Amino acid sequence: MSLWRVLALLMLLPATQTTNAGVKVRITQKGLDYGRQIAIATLLEKLKTIKVPDLSGAEKVSPIGKVQYSLTGIQITALGLPKSAVGLVPGTGISLSIGQAYIRMHGNWKVQYLHIVKDSGSFDLFVNGLAITSGIGLKSDETGRPEVNIASCADSISSASVKFRGGASWLYSLFSSYIDKAIRDTLQKQVNAVLKGIIILKVRWKRKEPPFSAKTFSLPPLASNMLYIGVSEFTANSAGFTYNNAGALSLFITDDMIPPSSPIRLNTRTFGAFIPQIAKRYPRMMMKLLVKMVKAPSITFQQNITTIQASGTITAYAIQPNTTLSPLFILNVGVSFSSLVYVTGVKLSGTVSLNKMDMTLGQSYVGPFQVKSLDKIVLMVLKMVVIPKVNARLQQGFPLPSIGKMNLVNTRVQVLKDFMLIGTDVQFTG
């Protein structure tokens, strides 16, 4: 897991700096503290994987002369990050600092001097005062999408000492300063590589601009959760706009989609009871209905109330024996729904229920008839087929900004004027 994923939702903050953001995010101190704990645990695991390469060289040591040495099999035996802090850098991003860290290592040494004298033993390396500072810069590109860059990545070691055991350990003490520097330089490179390797963010934020703008809204000053996400009417309506443009808000309804227990069937006999000319022109034929939105639905948020207004058409067809579809009529339908919204995992889900329906005749291919006579049939189709289909899709959910392996816990959803507020804690699973 990336060190910074726990704080990655802050990548949405640049969007909140504009007056009319579609989504606003606030991370609280509780969220920052949790992020620091996850970051330190991640960094500890990564630092344990450091592999210090074998070191070898030659130094002139008085009075012996040239001494060839090698340090091999260096392994970490202890590691600690006792002091750490995380915070926001105004106008820049996030910073993480670690102080008073230490690393203990163990390895083997070999030496050869005077061309024929060889010796070996073990050593312990003590690195103290390891300081790490790192940060990411957060901004948005020209389209408003979040971008991340590594703003800083540095580490320093205040002291590193080597204790040699066995053989001519006294000899190593004569040039331990050379070895100390070689190990310190190598270790700093390894730590720096670990830091740069884990400052990786994967935030997916896809959008297509709708032909309407966002209203101004502000998040209330709450702090009981780690994270607060404000989803405006603009964002909800943008989803409807996108689905409608993709043709996803249309549905063919056939008789096999009507519950078997229903006395009303999609055939010319049933509809002929209300519109006799249908049964006369198309006797004993099955029918098909096409429900289609004529424009994107409109979603409004008021205190504790979510309302969806939708305008569409219902086109009825008779299915000829050769499967040709013969149009019968087109109804203009306006419906109002109430919606219950909730969060499951990292998705925003919901259900809808019908408030009211208005219906007028758009076009008839079978002559004039009273539209009101079809009210019960259309209501039945809406309640038995259309609404369950809509709810099945809504219950699948629409993804919130995605960040690695993340669970939202203790989630609360409030519907306020012009926006929906999601308060949640964050829990990472690996």
From TrEMBL:
It is found in: Secreted. Residues 26-279 form the Lipid-binding serum glycoprotein N-terminal domain. It comes from Denticeps clupeoides (denticle herring). One of its GO terms (cellular component) is extracellular space. This is Bactericidal permeability-increasing protein. Residues 221-424 form the Lipid-binding serum glycoprotein C-terminal domain. The gene is LOC114800851. The N-terminal region may be exposed to the interior of the granule, whereas the C-terminal portion may be embedded in the membrane. During phagocytosis and degranulation, proteases may be released and activated and cleave BPI at the junction of the N- and C-terminal portions of the molecule, providing controlled release of the N-terminal antibacterial fragment when bacteria are ingested. Residues 1-18 form the signal peptide. GO terms for biological process: defense response to Gram-negative bacterium; innate immune response. Gene3D superfamilies: Bactericidal permeability-increasing protein, domain 2. Belongs to the BPI/LBP/Plunc superfamily. BPI/LBP family. Monomer. Homodimer; disulfide-linked. Keywords: Antibiotic, Antimicrobial, Disulfide bond, Glycoprotein, Immunity, Innate immunity, Secreted, Signal. The cytotoxic action of BPI is limited to many species of Gram-negative bacteria; this specificity may be explained by a strong affinity of the very basic N-terminal half for the negatively charged lipopolysaccharides that are unique to the Gram-negative bacterial outer envelope. SMART domains: BPI1, BPI2. The keyword Secreted applies.
